[in-house]
Specification:
BirA Bifunctional Protein, domain 2, 337 residues, alpha+beta, 13 strands, three-stranded antiparallel β-sheet
């Protein structure tokens, strides 16, 4: 794509996001990129950037944020009802046709609702963006065919997706790797490596059998993830085997990840510590916990939130096959091969 056309398409998409979410009552906010504690996700590597006081003094470890999530939830705790941000975020080591180490994320949070309310807002925003960028909600898929981005999107639970695509009763596994291994073998699938965790084996099956068939003609929300993958989501009160988490897939791309937000600070600390232990097991650096976030979390109201890859949405709307087509200065130009 011509660089000027790519820049114009990006500007139209950003304007459409602001107009659509503004119409839904959201306010745009801006939070720092440099933070004292990054996310703890085991498979995400943050960039460390130490602060050195001019004229001498003690250095302070800081990180470029991998998401504005913690800061935005602190704003919810301070009374902001509906907020969004088009944030520049940073993740070390991620370079591929869908990844750049610096990219743009649309993140939004809404108080007084759960993941269902956020899914409705997001699909309304995406449909409006498609109409603004391309003139209609029907877009061409790079591999052929079309994708209809008109709301509402399809919805399927993770248990239904596993049963239909892999022949596995995910609920029966109940978050235990040995049960999932036996179910995989019974379905004629690889049981994975001996040291695999539940997450490891889950994603082996998901990536091989489930994800390739998601959202090919219409976007689909995959909801209700196994409890071990709750991350920052609350568990379903009627069935705690499942977390109120969703991911959005469209045209072969994973576009978004969202939750009904957890507001129990003690449980959130326990999950962070478990993620730190997993980082140690994987040999990754273990950053400190965000104590400011944990201190304000009990004041956060019931809320839903979602993070969407802005560049990936732009790829979908323009038919780009590689994120580098849409970046004026992609990192791959200067990174060592």
């Amino acid at each position: 794509m011509d660089p000027r056309e790519a820049a114009r398409a990006r500007a139209r998409l950003a304007a459409a996001v602001r107009e659509s979410l503004g119409g839904l009552g959201y306010e745009e906010v801006e939070t720092p990129c440099l933070v004292p504690a990054p996310g703890q996700e085991p498979h995400i590597a943050p960039f460390e950037a130490r602060f050195v006081p001019e004229g001498g003094g003690r250095e302070t470890p800081l990180w470029l944020h991998t998401s504005p999530e913690y800061a935005m939830k602190r704003l919810l705790a301070r009374g902001f009802p509906r907020i969004f941000q088009l944030a520049r975020v940073f993740r070390n080591g991620e370079v591929s046709p869908q990844h750049n180490p610096e990219f743009t994320m649309l993140e939004l949070y809404r108080a007084g609702t759960d993941y269902r309310g956020v899914m409705a807002d997001l699909e309304s925003c995406i449909a409006a963006c498609a109409a603004a960028v391309g003139g209609r909600t029907l877009v061409a898929r790079p591999g052929g065919g079309t994708l209809d981005l008109a709301a509402p999107f399809e919805r399927i639970t993770m248990a239904e997706a596993f049963r239909e695509a892999a022949g596995i009763d995910l609920g029966d596994a109940d978050g235990e790797v040995d049960r999932l291994r036996r179910a995989a073998e019974a379905a004629g699938l690889s049981p994975g490596a001996p040291g695999d965790t539940f997450d490891d084996l889950f994603f082996r099956i998901f990536l091989a059998r489930v994800e390739p068939g998601l959202g090919l003609t219409r976007p689909v929300y995959v909801t209700d993830w196994p409890a071990p993958m709750a991350a920052l989501a609350r568990l379903r009160p009627d069935d705690p085997r499942w977390a109120e988490r969703f991911e959005l897939y469209a045209g072969g791309l994973e576009l978004a990840n969202g939750f009904s937000e957890l507001t129990d600070a003690r449980e959130q600390r326990r999950r962070f510590v478990a993620e730190q232990e997993e980082r140690r097991r994987l040999g990754r650096p273990v950053p400190p916990l965000d104590e400011r976030f944990l201190a304000e979390l009990p004041r956060m109201p019931e809320a839903g939130g979602v993070a969407l890859g802005f560049d990936r949405l732009l790829m979908l709307l323009t038919g780009a096959r590689d994120i580098r087509e849409l970046l004026l200065f992609p990192a791959a130009e200067f990174l060592a091969k």
